[in-house]
Amino acid sequence: MLKAGVLGAGHLGKIHLRLLQQSSQYELIGFYDANPEYAQKIVKEFGYKYFDTIDALIDAVDVVDIVTPTLSHHECAKKAILKGKHVFIEKPITNTVAEAEELIKLVKKHKVKGQVGHVERFNPAFKAVKDQIISPMFIETHRLAEFNPRGTDVPVVLDLMIHDIDAILSVVKSKVVKINASGVSVISNSPDIANARLEFENGCVANLTSSRISMKNMRKSRFFQRDAYIAVDFLEKKVEVVKMKDAPKKVDEFALILQNAEGVKKQIYFENPEIDENNAILEELETFADAINNDTTPIVSLAQGTEALRIAIKIIEKFKK
């Protein structure tokens, strides 16, 4: 079993602590949090071992799970990597692309593994259809959340939209060549509502909308490609797959047939992929353990996390212009 420790015991950090303790692939050694008084409350409530310095925790483990505020990701990860420890870093990977690129070089130099916590990659609905999203040419995403003061220290792009940026980059095998974006600050000092249009070299276009001051929660993505329409509801963990094929010569009376001006007939049919329930955070942590144990590339590599951050920052820069 891999010895693991958590840096940061906030809302998400507590979830990581609980899941690492449950996991059969990790031995939870303990945690560090910058607030000693709060940390002692966690100790009393859950019994986890508390380390009073970051270095002490790093020295005691094989894997460092970094769930601290984004501004400290680079410093924490660098300390761990320099001591030969594997690092799991919550999204976004770091505060700047330069910091992220340094971490990529460091993990390679010190021969350790790194993964970024883009948890939607492990959402069972997305996993059920990901292999069917082959050549999307238009993508539309909506990620809306009710207001929560937690996370408003960063623009909504880094808080919410980056999930969709990463998911899109994982299925569109082409380079982003153009970005248009707008953002509005309503209650925070940084944008609370944002819309971005990404244009890819292969002609694919993605339209992303995110808001953290909505009346209801929504996390939906729609992928349009030549042979299919695929909708993913990340919140409800549901999918809708509509496909098209050449109509057979003998058509069933209940078949849905479309005919174009040239007389070509196409049949529309529906698929219902099986969705396997999972705990996405536990799965991302355990696949990281697999990557370490089997010396394979993590599902969300530091390079992929860096590319998502790069696009997110370019979107934010468009707001300023």
UniProtKB/TrEMBL annotation:
GO terms for molecular function: nucleotide binding; oxidoreductase activity. Its EC number is 1.1.1.370. Keywords: Oxidoreductase. Residues 3-118 form the Gfo/Idh/MocA-like oxidoreductase N-terminal domain. Coiled coil: none annotated. Pfam families: GFO_IDH_MocA (PF01408), GFO_IDH_MocA_C3 (PF22725). InterPro entries: Gfo/Idh/MocA-like_OxRdtase_N (IPR000683), Gfo/Idh/MocA_Oxidoreductases (IPR051450), GFO_IDH_MocA-like_dom (IPR055170), NAD(P)-bd_dom_sf (IPR036291). It comes from the Bacteria. The keyword DNA repair does not apply. It is an enzyme of class 1 (oxidoreductase). Residues 156-216 form the GFO/IDH/MocA-like oxidoreductase domain. This is Scyllo-inositol 2-dehydrogenase (NAD(+)). It comes from Kordia antarctica. The gene is iolX_1.
